[in-house]
Amino acid sequence: MEKTYNPQGMEQEIYKKWEESGAFKPVKKEGAKPYTISMPPPNITGQLHMGHALTYTLPDVLIRYHRMMGDPTLWVPGTDHASIATEVKIVAQMAEEGITKEDIGREGFLKRAWAWKEEYGKRITTQLRRLGASCDWSRERFTMDEGCSIAVREVFVRLYEQGLIYRGDRIINWCPDCMTALSDAEIEYEEQMSHLWYLRYPAADGGEGVVVATTRPETMLGDSGVAVNPNDERFKHLIGKTVILPIVNREIPVVADEYVDMKFGTGAVKMTPAHDPNDFEVGQRHNLEIIKVINDDGTMAENTGKDYAGLTREEARKKIVQELEKQGFLVKIEDYSHNVGTCYRCGTTVEPLISKQWFVKMEPLAKPAIKVVREGEIRFLPERFSKTYFNWMENIRDWCISRQLWWGHRIPAWYCDECGEVIVSREDPVKCPKCGSEKLRQDEDVLDTWFSSALWPFSTLGWPEETEDFKYFYPTSTMVTGYDIIFFWVARMIFSGLAYTGKIPFDKVLIHGLVRDEKGRKMSKSLGNGVDPLEAIDKFGADALRFTLCMGVSIGNDIRYSDSKIESSRNFANKIWNATRFVLMNLDGEETIDGKQFELADKWILNRAMQAVKDISKFLDSYEHGLSAERIYDFAWSDFCDWYIELSKADLFGEDLERKKTVRAVLQYVLSILIKLLHPFMPFITETIYSYLPGKENESCMLSSWPEYKEEFDFVEEADKMQGVMDIIRSVRNLRAEMRVQAGRKARLMLKPHDGWGEALSNSAHYFEKLANVSELQIIASPEDVQEKTVSAVTPAAEIFMPLGDLVDISEEISRIKKEIEKTQGEIKRSQGKLNNQGFISKAPKQLIEAEEEKLKKHTAMLDVLKNRLNSLEA
Q1: E strand or H helix at 606, and its extent?
Q2: Is the bond preceding residue 464 a cis peptide, omega within 30 degrees?
């Protein structure tokens, strides 16, 4: 082995060997239940960020664990075409060349898009390899590959045939910048300060009319009614009458509808059915006119008149408010804070528009999907996220699935120019089935990206064909994803799996949080606190990054990332490397543990190994990555490296050949277990180390068996005894540190064992001598047997006494402590002087005063300790 671990020189070579050897491919076993995960497909525009690193590390840990457990294990990788994100990038690239989509036409644009996919699509999968993702790349999929495209068309046609897909005029979310429709799930809401404008609409019969409150005065040009609650006594006399719309001078009706909140604004609400989803529903119930006054690009429409046509929404708002004030219809303006919908891609304020789009009827699809989660067939981990799911599914609206883009799955619908027939077909039609005309036009729009992503768990396994992979690996096992896409993706996969395969797509949904910086802030370009995981891998190694992410994670919660944490993980890797080098340097070939005579320390480490196997297996079965990582860290660093290796040195360097063989066998056996337990978290270093173990030179740790719990090695009583010995060693070390004893100075140790501990402590003299600098162990019957000045302590196993004269020169120690007392008294006097000074108290910052108070408290406590020590020495 190299003297120091160099991940940069090893990791990529190891991964290449794994992939080329086919190690990631599952081995199907008759009757064995497979373990399958579908990788959340990253966008082809993607660059690996810390969120990705977490999203792909967590399932890889599970995949590696189940592979070692002997399960037929498959992790299906792939990428997403990401309609909007990719098209935006390509359009921006073309703009730099001075050309537009329209300049090159649809076919020319798609040619560019596929070229983009070829150039950039492999970038993120290369990065996933750097992270160590052990997925079966021979089964890699793309949401627009031939198989996935067949699945998408099959689903669209089925839903259309079942009457669950329809085309109609509806209010949709429209991004004026991306120039496309968005589903409800693609809207991000942000709190914005605005105003409530109170406008008076005079009655047509000359009466008082009504005052309405609105956050969007620019849409009033499209008003076609005013709604009031039928139970509101203030407006009952107006129901059925008409009012005059200011500026436009259009007569519009006052209608009664339960939708109206009597407590909002004045209790009367202007109705703009073309630009508000709730107004649209009210308008449908009361046959209100639909008047679209905002264009797709966010400017005011031609029908708003020469004063407003072509203005932006903001410009029109300002001008309309001025005109209302001028004409006397502006009653008042109030400050108002409310949630405003923005496009999840570009951040532009979304415009609700009336538009002809394709929709999926969601209610019949949502009901079975709600039931399987409610009845526990699918479990969210943690369970609290099922509330997010239920809230979304139980209030779901029809899903707008058409997008005004060119990159994506083109909607498989054709229109006959002769008779107007709409043809939805699995195959491209040649002529109209109704009139026979060949003048057919395919719908220009593409499907929402999430339409194809919703089919991912089964389309990637060959559905709609009954392929061998689909029959064996579906349903999949676990879906690992962030809480931010529960409704974007998870909900849609669940209802899609049930609707098209008749089975749930997975039975566990493991939800993780965001990766934040060390101050708890979300990583972002604007804050400049983002960390490129590839830079972290280049600097510290993939293992250190993976272990850091796992150590910090608890199910469903955000984690904090810092350089100090990843440095700690790198140090842990170095600790394991150095411990392995020590073990290997002291082995003499492969040594079996069978038939060996174990001493107390051997039985203790074997017990700790067995407990680690039990605990880590239990934690991984419960998806507790964080607890698993902490447990392997403690076992490796503390139990194995800090304790057993140190305990073993006396025997390794001693003369007893049988003890040497036993200790070598135990070291080798426990190291092998440790490396296997660590493998899912740190695959590269463990793969390297495993190949150095005697007898494992041509074997792979990744393909080895998960450690087995063996009851015959779970020495519970002996482990408790050894723990007692270790407690004494710690106490002796603490006493020596408190007394500032020189490192090499040895001292006698007198122990008065508690009941049942005599034999164990008598047989442990060599441990005390080696690890506590003890010159001689004396077992005493009573504290009265001690005839000299001592320092003492108590542990669960014994009372501890150490002769003071063995530890320090008493006269020198008395002199030193007196100097310390004098110095400490000076510090106390200084602090008291400051804190009694009113000038300091009145002018100093609060934190400075608190720091001074803490210093006084610390030095006062220290003075007590020093005086007690002086008294004991002078007694």
Answers
A1: helix 600-621
A2: yes
Task: Please state, in angstroms and as integers, the Cα–Cα distance from residue 466 to each residue in 74, 123, 461, 473, 502, following that order.
Answer: 18, 32, 9, 11, 13
**Mean pLDDT of the region 428-444:** 94
Strand partners, 801: 750, 792
Count the residues in the chain. 875
DSSP characters for 794-863? E-SSEEEEEEHHHHS-HHHHHHHHHHHHHHHHHHHHHHHHHHT-HHHHHHS-HHHHHHHHHHHHHHHHHH
- Report the alpha-carbon distance of residue 489 to residue 451 in Å, rounded: 9
Check if the beta carbon of residue 111 is closer than 8 Å to that of residue 73: no
Structure token digits, residue 494? 């669940």
Residue 66: what residue type? H
Calculated CA dihedral for residues 725, 731, 737, 743, nearest 10 degrees: -20
**Closest listed residue to residue 171, CA positions, set 276, 284, 270, 269:** 276
Q: What is the DSSP string of 173-197?
A: EEETTTTEEE-GGGEEEEEEEEEEE
Exposure on the CB side of residue 347, measured as CA atoms within 13 A: 1
Provide the token pair at 190.
Answer: 């942000």
First to last CA, the chain: 57
CA nearest neighbour of 458 among 447, 449, 467, 450: 467
H/E run at residue 166? strand 165-175
CA-based torsion, 93, 96, 102, 108: positive or negative: negative
Q: How far is Cα 92 from Cα 86, in angstroms, rounded to an integer?
A: 10
Whether 675 and 699 have beta carbons less than 8 Å apart is answered as no
Helix, strand, coil tally for the chain in percent (to 5): 50, 20, 35
CB 508 within 8 A of CB 478: yes
Rounded Cα distance between 507 and 373, Å, is 9
Q: pTM, whole model, 2 decimals?
A: 0.82
Compute CA distances 157 → 165, 247, 428, 491, 529, whole Å. Answer: 9, 48, 12, 21, 47
Beta pairing, strands 225-228 & 268-271:
antiparallel
Sort 840 into a burial class: Cβ within 10 Å, 0-12 / 13-18 / 19+. Answer: middle
Angle at 456 between CA 495 and CA 502, to 5 degrees: 40
Quote the mean pLDDT of the chain. Answer: 92
* pLDDT, tens only, 92-111: 899 999 998 889 999 999 99
Supply φ then ψ for residue 596, to 5 degrees: -80, 150
Q: Tokens representing 205? A: 């019969």
Token pair recorded at residue 778: 């004396």
Per residue in 438-455, pLDDT (tens digit) is 999 999 999 999 999 999
From the list 418, 519, 397, 523, the residue with the least C-alpha distance to 54 is 523
SS3 41: coil
CA distances from 751 to 526, 725, 773, 785 (A): 63, 11, 15, 11
Range among 192-196, 482-486, 673-677, 831-835 rated most confident: 673-677
- Other beta carbons within 10 angstroms of residue 720's beta carbon come to 14
CA angle 630, 636, 637 (to 5 degrees): 85
Which three-class secondary structure state does DSSP give residue 677? helix
Task: Give me the DSSP letters along 236-305.
Answer: GGGTT-EEEETTTTEEEEEEE-TTS-TTSTTSEEEE-TTS-HHHHHHHHHHT------B-TTSBBPGGG-
- Of 73, 303, 37, 343, residue with least CA distance to 188: 343
- Tens of pLDDT, residues 199-250: 999 999 888 899 999 999 999 999 999 999 999 999 988 999 999 999 999 9
Q: Cβ distance 720 to 767 under 8 Å?
A: no
Rounded alpha-carbon distances, angstroms, from residue 81 to 40, 138, 179, 481, 532: 13, 19, 18, 18, 23
